[in-house]
Amino acid sequence: MTGKAPAPAPLTAAQLAAARTALPEWKRTATVLSRTFTFQDFPAAIAFMADCAPGIQERDHHPEWTNVYDHIVVRLNTHEAKGKVTGRDVEIAKFLDWKFSTI
């Protein structure tokens, strides 16, 4: 059998509330999780992105992220869920938080 997996479901209000607790550094709405990471300098910011890339690729769920000098702004939502926040976004946010905590 071939075909795409079903689209992930948007988080419920209760699940969004749980995400607020689990991800205190992240701003949350029904349509986006966002966080700004700040680093010592530009090379450190780019190194973080490069270090995270393999884990993100393994999860097959890619963030919208931008870099300006020592800052990385990450925005997460799921296109297949009509731009809403899903469990996949929470998983990536937790992964990025963990990677950030190790530097």
Structural class call reads: alpha+beta
CATH topology of one domain, by name, is Gyrase A, domain 2
What is the fourth-level CATH superfamily of one domain?
Transcriptional coactivator/pterin dehydratase
Q: Please report which band the strand proportion falls in: under 5%, 5-15%, 15-25%, 25-35%, 35-45% or over 45%.
A: 15-25%
Q: What strand order characterises the main sheet?
A: 1-2-4-3
Characterize the structure shown.
This protein has about 100 residues and is an alpha+beta fold. The protein has a domain at about 35-100: 2-Layer Sandwich (Gyrase A, domain 2). It has three helices and four strands; from the N terminus they run αββαββα. It has helices spanning about 15-20, 40-60, 85-100; strands spanning about 25-30, 35-40, 65-70, 70-75. It has a four-stranded antiparallel β-sheet with strand order 1-2-4-3, covered by helices on one side.
List keywords for this structure.
3 helices, 103 residues, 4-stranded antiparallel β-sheet, alpha+beta
Concise overview:
Helices cover 42% and strands 18% of the residues.
Could you outline the blueprint of secondary structure elements for this entry?
Layout: H1 13-22, E1 27-28, E2 33-38, H2 42-59, E3 64-68, E4 71-76, H3 87-101
Antiparallel strand pairs: 1-2, 2-4, 3-4
Helix pairs in contact: 2-3
